[in-house]
Protein: Translation initiation factor eIF2B subunit delta
Organism: Kwoniella shivajii
Amino acid sequence: MPSPTDPEPSTASSDTKQPKPAKPQPANGEKANVGGEKGKSAKDLKKEKRAAAVAARAVSDNPADSGRPSLSTQNSADGRQGGSNQSQHGHSHNTNNNAAGSTTGGGGAGPSIPKRPVHFSEPSALSLSTIQQNLFFSHLPHQETPDTATALRTGKIHPLIIRLGVLMSSGTLRGANARTMGMMAAFREVIRDYECPDQAVLWKDLPIYLSPMIAWLEGCRPKGVGGGNAIRWLKSEINRLGEQGDRSEAEQRDYLLEAIGLYLRDRIEFADKVIADHAKEKIKNGDTVVTYARSSVVERVLLEAWRDMKAADPEAGFKVIVVDSRPLLEGRQFLEALSSAGLSCTYIFLPLLSSILPQADLVLLGGSALHSDGALYSRSGTALVAMLAKEHRVPVVACVETYKFGEKVVLDGVATNELGRTEGLLDLPCGKNFGLNKKESDNPKTGGGRNNLTPLHLVYDVTPPSLITAVCTEIGFIPPSSVPTVLGKASNVV
């Protein structure tokens, strides 16, 4: 019998205190790391303590963000790692490690929900509305009054360009054709006044000279697809001067001035005339034509169709229904132009369109751009008009010049759009003010609303190609799916 002082019983006692648990056979050749378990657990515990200290220090440094619960990614990952280790190795972790794993979201049952801070409060309806607006529309450009004083002090922006930017931002020049023509005419005068510095080449220095002016106009209001295509064409014409090295500076300047004049004549003025000649053939005697807002090319189509019809038969004619919406109310000027020419017109707002469409024969729409997938990018409300027209089986014809064709694909009206002015949204002729007093309704900073009212005006929307029957261009009637073909054939121009 061994004596009580023999070391053998102590070894047996040690084995009794720490029995080896039955472990499943490791798969894929894994070997249980029994000897390194203690070191690995200490490392995990150290990571968890460091992550908890960093999280506590971040909360104390930003007390304003304490109302919003946050969970560190590293902390959560460490907690999950600690929880998986605990589940795999049974009860080998000590009590302190289990407590740390529970704090960081670990444990056998998965990550736990973080506790809310003491000063946490549920967001109100106003804050949720503001968050949603910032989330979906904060990236969109909005129209503001440009800082003309700073632009003049820089000396890099021509006064004519500053005047053009003010007209564009105020809404005086609103249509795509009007803005593009005004921009190209302004650049023509800038090039006329331009003097190439000594030791410089015109075709290299002129794009650098025009760059701050283009950027300033973009800050006043986005140039759109048509304006962007026109500027790219102008830069390509300037680069083409590098291939003609035998010309003097005056000859190069005259070449650019003549090229800009030809671009405006062929791509906009002559294109509108050809579109009017094609589209007016679709209007017959006694027809009822529906149009939305105001488009310069649609206005020309209707006026020329009326003049030709009256010239052929004084008793013939057709009716026009002008559909309008707030806050721009562009249809009023369109209605005035048509009425003064003698056309029989009806003026309605967008909610009444469904009651008028059963008696309509044709819907004519303008557009700011036509994307490569055939989607029409036009004034907000155009998509609703096209959708209702298709429901009532009324053909929809979009009148768009080819210089407005874009290579992008736009799936919605949120990613690329503009935020317009909201003053006209709350100005109702019936005298209702949505519960606002006079001081609040006249405050431009709040957009004419109370603290719980957020006016929102999206300038454009996207009409899917399935709602458009045909597109009338200067090259004739084409389906919306033919836009990539036109872009490929006219890649040197568009």
About this structure: The CA atoms of residues 139 and 211 lie 23 Å apart. Confidence is low (pLDDT under 50) at residues 1-39, 63-110, 119-128, 444-449. The longest helix spans residues 249-279. The longest strand covers residues 319-324.
